[in-house]
């Protein structure tokens, strides 16, 4: 009889413990849900934000690039079906002109990057002075349409705009960018806003933010100092070297900090979620898989006109499609 009583008490005790555990679990679940749900919503909202504010125009909502390219274009299938992300990078100067124009194309399947530099003096009819750098007029959509038109109506997924100071701050967060300086770059312009002073010795240099701006802006030297013989085209080669090295040197343990700094320094329609995804895709990219190109041009009537046949050949190479006669 005593043994049966003990068994009943044990069963009752176990049942009470189970009920107690279940109640504790349910209360904890309610508390965690109450706390975590707003947290997850906040994280989700952060991931969907865009650098520079929500007032920035969004290319995907403003332009239907698929509509711009004709279905009988030899690039139609490549442009529409490829797993690429094309980002237009614009460097904006103090006069609200695009001082730097680059299309950065990420091939996510093959983990390669191609950078196409568009010289700022490239002829473009629908602009104030017939140059593509003046088509911007404060709106990146204008530049995106112009660059897409020149590049056979290539789709552009996102844009990124940077000021000179924004570039400097990002470079400092990277820890500097290593470049090769072909000659002593020396130039002073006291009338620029702010006054411009460039003094970078020849050879391999680790540029901090301030020096990087001088390196990227240099076109010609003061009297007695060397200049690029091909003016803006020489500067583009330096810009390409810089961007290529900056991508390689920013990919590493400090990448998230670089992305965080960039978030505060750029204006873009790319979300934080997408930027983190691309950053993850690029982790460990082989520097040999980053290609740099300059928009093919033909000099005519004192202006630099896009060379359509050569541009088609360049895009055929980048998109790895069958060659054709344009």
Q: What proportion strand?
A: 15-25%
The helix/strand order is HHHHEEEHEHEEEEHHHEHEEEH
Mean pLDDT: 83
* Number of strand elements: 12
Query: Residue ranges: pLDDT <50 for 5 or more in a row?
Result: none
Count helical runs.
11
CATH topology of the largest domain: Aminopeptidase
Q: Radius of gyration, rounded?
A: 27 Å
The strand order across the widest sheet is 9-4-1-2-3-10
Instruction: Just name the CATH architecture of the largest domain.
Output: 3-Layer(aba) Sandwich
What structural class results from the helix and strand content?
alpha+beta
Global shape: globular
Helix percentage range: 40-55%
| Sheet having the most strands | 6 strands, mixed
Give a description of the structure.
The longest helix has 46 residues, at 2-47. Strand 2 (98-107) and strand 3 form a beta hairpin. The protein has helices at residues 2-47, 59-62, 65-68, 76-81, 140-150, 164-174, 209-217, 232-250, 255-265, 272-282, 308-319, and strands spanning 84-92, 98-107, 112-117, 158-163, 177-181, 185-189, 196-200, 203-207, 266-268, 290-294, 297-300, 303-306. It contains eleven helices and twelve strands. 28% of the residues are buried. The protein is an alpha+beta fold and 326 residues long. The strands form four sheets. It has a six-stranded mixed sheet, with helices on both faces. Strands 5-8 form a two-stranded antiparallel ribbon. The N and C termini lie far apart (101 Å). The protein is globular. It folds into two domains: 1-47; 59-319, Aminopeptidase, CATH 3.40.630.
């Amino acid at each position: 009889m005593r043994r049966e009583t003990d068994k009943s008490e044990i069963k009752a005790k176990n049942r009470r413990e189970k009920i107690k555990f279940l109640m504790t679990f349910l209360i904890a679940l309610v508390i965690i849900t109450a706390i975590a749900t707003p947290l997850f919503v906040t994280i989700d909202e952060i991931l969907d934000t865009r650098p520079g504010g929500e007032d920035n125009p969004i290319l995907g909502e403003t332009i239907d690039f698929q509509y711009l390219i004709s279905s009988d274009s030899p690039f139609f299938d490549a442009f529409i079906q490829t797993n690429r992300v094309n980002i237009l990078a614009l460097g904006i100067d103090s006069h609200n002109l695009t001082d730097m124009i680059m299309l950065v194309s990420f091939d996510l399947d093959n983990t390669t990057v191609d950078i196409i530099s568009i010289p700022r003096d490239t002829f473009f009819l629908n602009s104030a002075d017939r140059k593509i750098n003046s088509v911007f007029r404060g709106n990146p959509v204008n530049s995106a349409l112009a660059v897409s038109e020149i590049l056979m109506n290539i789709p552009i997924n996102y844009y990124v705009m940077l000021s000179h100071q924004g570039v400097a701050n990002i470079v400092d967060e990277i820890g500097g960018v290593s470049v090769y300086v072909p000659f002593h770059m020396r130039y002073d312009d006291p009338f620029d806003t702010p006054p411009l002073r460039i003094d970078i010795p020849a050879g391999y240099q680790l540029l901090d933010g301030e020096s990087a701006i001088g390196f990227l802006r240099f076109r010609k030297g003061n009297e007695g100092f060397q200049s690029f013989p091909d003016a803006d085209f020489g500067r583009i080669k330096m810009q390409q070297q810089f961007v290529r090295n900056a991508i390689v040197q920013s990919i590493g343990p400090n990448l998230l900090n670089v992305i965080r700094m960039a978030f505060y320094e750029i204006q873009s329609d790319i979300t934080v979620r997408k930027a983190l995804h691309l950053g993850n895709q690029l982790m460990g990219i082989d520097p040999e898989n980053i290609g740099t190109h300059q928009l093919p041009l033909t000099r005519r009537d004192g202006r630099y006109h896009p060379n359509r046949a050569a541009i088609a050949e360049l895009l055929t190479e980048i998109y790895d499609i069958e060659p054709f006669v344009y």
